[in-house]
Amino acid sequence: MIDLGISKLALIGTVALIVIGPEKLPRVARTVGTLLGKAQRYVNDVKAEVSRSMEMDELRKMKDSVESAARDVEQSFEKTASTVRDDLEGVAGSESDFTSSTDPEAESDRSWFSPRPAVYTPPRKNWRVKRGAMPRWYKLQNGVRTHVQSGAARVARHRPKKRF
């Protein structure tokens, strides 16, 4: 790395003062400062983008591992369910011992053997209602304003009414 001490910076400043001149030196110094600032921001943005992409790769790997674990659990559950179903059918001999053939729900009663995927429903929120941390009774008691009003509207509201 470049070692810039106070003596080297003083030498660079002296040479710049001689070469550029005292009239243009402040403008050149400002320009160099802004360019260095832009370069630092660009480097920081690139570093942040690289770290974000690395995090995204890690998250993708984690997602794949979780999905494979979920598939393994689902397959083991299906195997267990099928063995339990076979055992129950073997013990019962036939389903007519447990259910009557006239029962229409007996056919649809086996739906618990095949797992159904859960459907995500987001919580219902009333986003138009603004909920404050301070209760309304406290605001009324201590005179805290609950409605925003412009200065002109506030003056017009509290101006005495004209009586004719």
From TrEMBL:
<protein>
    <recommendedName>
        <fullName>Sec-independent protein translocase protein TatB</fullName>
    </recommendedName>
</protein>
<dbReference type="GO" id="GO:0043953">
    <property type="term" value="P:protein transport by the Tat complex"/>
</dbReference>
<keyword id="KW-0813">Transport</keyword>
<comment type="similarity">
    <text>Belongs to the TatB family.</text>
</comment>
<feature type="region of interest" description="Disordered">
    <location>
        <begin position="76"/>
        <end position="124"/>
    </location>
</feature>
<comment type="subunit">
    <text>The Tat system comprises two distinct complexes: a TatABC complex, containing multiple copies of TatA, TatB and TatC subunits, and a separate TatA complex, containing only TatA subunits. Substrates initially bind to the TatABC complex, which probably triggers association of the separate TatA complex to form the active translocon.</text>
</comment>
<comment type="function">
    <text>Part of the twin-arginine translocation (Tat) system that transports large folded proteins containing a characteristic twin-arginine motif in their signal peptide across membranes. Together with TatC, TatB is part of a receptor directly interacting with Tat signal peptides. TatB may form an oligomeric binding site that transiently accommodates folded Tat precursor proteins before their translocation.</text>
</comment>
<keyword id="KW-0812">Transmembrane</keyword>
<keyword id="KW-0997">Cell inner membrane</keyword>
<keyword id="KW-0472">Membrane</keyword>
<keyword id="KW-0653">Protein transport</keyword>
<keyword id="KW-1133">Transmembrane helix</keyword>
<dbReference type="InterPro" id="IPR018448">
    <property type="entry name" value="TatB"/>
</dbReference>
<dbReference type="InterPro" id="IPR003369">
    <property type="entry name" value="TatA/B/E"/>
</dbReference>
<dbReference type="GO" id="GO:0008320">
    <property type="term" value="F:protein transmembrane transporter activity"/>
</dbReference>
<dbReference type="GO" id="GO:0033281">
    <property type="term" value="C:TAT protein transport complex"/>
</dbReference>
<keyword id="KW-1003">Cell membrane</keyword>
<dbReference type="Pfam" id="PF02416">
    <property type="entry name" value="TatA_B_E"/>
</dbReference>
<keyword id="KW-0811">Translocation</keyword>
